[in-house]
Amino acid sequence: MTIVVVGAGPTGLFTAIALARRGHDVTVVDRDPGPVGDAPWRRRGVMQFAHAHTFRGPVVDALQTEIPDAVALLRQAGATVAAADDGTAIALRCRREVFERVLRQVAAGRHGLTMVTGHVDGVIRNGNRAVGVRVHGTRVPADLVIDASGRAGRITRETGAAGLSAPCGAAYVTRQYRVPDGAAHGPVNGPIGLSLSLTGYFAVAFLHDAGTFSITITHGGTDSRLRLLRHAPVYEAAVRAIPVLGQWLEHAEPITPVLPGARLHNTYRPQVDADGRPLMPGLIAVGDAVCTTTPLAGRGVTLAFRQAQALVEMLHSRPHDPVAVGVEFDAWCHEHIRPWFLDHVHGDGDRLRRWAGGDVDLRQRLPSDLVVAAAGADASLRAEVTAYERMQTLPSDLDRLQQRARAVYLTGWRPAPAPGPTRAELGELCAQCATGQPVPV
Ligand SMILES: Cc1cc2nc3c(=O)[nH]c(=O)nc-3n(C[C@H](O)[C@H](O)[C@H](O)COP(=O)(O)OP(=O)(O)OC[C@H]3O[C@@H](n4cnc5c(N)ncnc54)[C@H](O)[C@@H]3O)c2cc1C
């Protein structure tokens, strides 16, 4: 089959490499020309490129199955895989840039895969059937168009798909650092690095490749003083004010500016109409073009690769019927991806309410993060919440733990916030620091 993939982000490249391996003739079009040697890569079209990423274990499993060379190259580049005692991959620790560079490198050497630099202006149709794309006015015909154009992509929106959307309720600032050879990073409390739930906000330090790491502070965006965190001196004063996090800055050199972000949405886009007919036969969206979830949970690439694997398998078993595959894939996404979107919508809304001072609400179904947290008081929940955390089960598998988790909260137990300023104190610190007043340490 001749296939055009729009977008050379993680989803587009993974999908294209996997399809080319199965003998399809694949062209990937992206407006970004890709990196040139080791020169800095000013990535176009992906605002989160230099923002903190950690990749969950299923990303490693997907790469190991489909593109094992990529895992080897990532390790050569200094990425590490954190694994559980039983060998299950928990996380791939590397910067997003390193991750994408490696995928690009594999794609460039893949027989049957052509990379084209250009902007896809739109889909060419015969009637309503997609039969290719227009790149700078030039026609690129195809039996199947795959839309991997990401959260900001416009391709699938041409179909008039009525997507679902709800705010993530997260404003954040992030910065990457490097420690010199041999220097230790700061204290960790999990395989990805350090994750702290403070009063009214979160702070994390993600370990990356080759001595690099990133620190991110995330809040609800309601306190305007926290916008000052985008200024480097304010940001570093805030990081130092969180005792265990401040230790990460010892010996570390920043390698990016402080990068702010906000107004992200959880989104889900079906690809069939109310009667189950494809919105545009011959066009299939995958990855962020189908579903985005709050970055706080670091699930995006896992959900994207899961979709890509499912789609590739469906196309392999029905190579002559991409239109039927589009319908089958939408049904699969409805069953396996939409639940994660709904999980985030419920969890994000409740987190914002609690960040604003609300208590655990036992009148409603507990959101997944509270079921997971309850394992801190009732160890018998641990095995099942671990399966959810590793994304080995769907969120609905936590439903059977609802009663036991509620019992924990009915005793009055609550997860203890990590030591550090409350959100109001952090806001005060930002305001003081921005006006040059001494900041209490
Ligand atoms: C702040 C932030 C932090 C995140 N952190 C994590 C994390 O820790 N872990 C995790 O797993 N996920 C994380 N995610 C989600 C993750 O970044 C996405 O899931 C991932 O980028 C999806 O990849 P994609 O290939 O589908 O889309 P993208 O990465 O957006 O790639 C789309 C590509 O399509 C190209 N394109 C778009 N339109 C056109 C066009 N018309 N013509 C040509 N090219 C086009 C773009 O240039 C781009 O290269 C985070 C997201 C955000 C916003």
Describe the 3D structure:
By secondary structure, the chain is an alpha+beta fold. The chain has three domains: 2-166 and 264-340, 3-Layer(bba) Sandwich (FAD/NAD(P)-binding domain); 171-261, D-Amino Acid Oxidase, Chain A, domain 2 (2-Layer Sandwich); 360-413, no CATH class. 33% of the residues lie in helices and 22% in strands. The chain has helices at residues 10-21, 57-66, 68-76, 96-108, 232-241, 243-246, 300-317, 322-336, 338-355, 368-374, 382-389, 402-410, 423-434; strands spanning 2-6, 25-30, 55-56, 80-83, 89-93, 113-117, 120-126, 129-135, 138-141, 144-147, 164-167, 171-178, 193-198, 201-207, 212-219, 253-254, 259-261, 265-268, 283-285, 291-292. Helix 1 (10-21) packs parallel to helix 7, helix 5 (232-241) packs antiparallel against helix 13 (423-434) and helix 10 packs across helix 12 (402-410). The structure holds flavin-adenine dinucleotide.
